[in-house]
Write a structure and sequence with these properties.
- The protein is mostly helical and about 260 residues long.
- Helix content is about 70%, strand content about 0%.
- The longest helix has 25 residues.
- The chain is globular and about 60 Å long.
Length: about 260
């Protein structure tokens, strides 16, 4: 993850995400919604934690205000592209909607080009997404701690359930690993090493030369060592999620606050 920070634009979206969460914790919901909108415009998935803010933000009217302000900011930032070249703007959505299974455990269930993987992911994601957040908000914790835990679980579950889990997406988790004790240290190191190894193995022959394992670069099929590492990394992330839930359900969620 630290390696990816040096060269990936995800860090821009993460900056706005962290800024938005911080503003919300300071009871500046309107400013938070604006920064989440900018975060979504910078990198769509970095706005996922806004769901946690939306759930906890007062009554229905205030939640709708938060949602509308965030969406309005997103579209205002996108307005030049929408006006000047709407077909290219739509191409962004089409391009990502047609992507294959990449660096995700779902390769165990589907061929990498199987469109059913997208359907499965779309059903799996909301199924436990709401449950995870509900568990957090049922706990006896200060509001700020609940928001951080719910934001972490929302982001982590999105990455696990999504059929695309590119290595650079782990940058979205770094702020939560800093603020919350959700990952045993040794497992975190393994998690990060595997993530870095996916990059190295996918774009250079370093591991082939060192280990003597032959495979095609940028090979995402189930027979590729790159996918084996990606699958292991996915299930370690699931372990972090389950560990968080275990601590919460044992009624000692304060142990997760670093």
């Amino acid at each position: 993850m630290l390696f990816m920070n040096l060269l990936n634009w995800y860090i821009v979206g993460v900056y706005f995400m962290v800024r938005a969460i911080r503003l919300f914790l300071k009871d500046k919901a309107a400013s938070s919604a604006i920064f989440f909108g900018i975060s979504a415009a910078s990198n769509l998935i970095t706005a996922i934690p806004s769901v946690a803010m939306l759930i906890t933000h007062g009554d229905f009217r205030r939640r709708m205000q938060f949602l509308i302000l965030g969406l309005a900011t997103y579209f205002i930032v996108n307005l030049p592209a929408l006006v000047l070249n709407p077909s290219n703007w739509l191409r962004f959505w089409e391009y990502h909607a047609s992507w294959y299974v990449e660096c995700n455990w779902q390769i165990l269930l589907f061929n990498m080009f199987d469109p059913n993987a997208r359907i499965f992911s779309a059903r799996l994601m909301p199924m436990l997404f709401i449950l995870l957040l509900a568990v957090v908000y049922k706990t006896q914790l200060p509001k700020h701690s609940k928001i951080l835990l719910a934001s972490w679980l929302a982001m982590a579950w999105f990455l696990f359930a999504n059929y695309v889990y590119a290595p650079q997406m782990n940058i979205t988790l770094l702020p939560f690993f800093t603020l919350l004790a959700v990952a045993p240290y040794q497992l975190f190191i393994l998690f990060d090493v595997l993530n870095s190894a996916i990059i190295v193995a996918g774009f250079s022959r370093f591991l082939q030369n060192v280990l003597g394992i032959k495979y095609e670069l940028k090979s995402w099929g189930i027979d590729s060592p790159i996918q084996w590492m990606a699958i292991a990394r996915s299930f370690i992330l699931l372990g972090f999620i389950l560990y968080s839930l275990y601590i919460i359900l044992r009624r000692s969620p304060s142990n997760l606050i670093a």
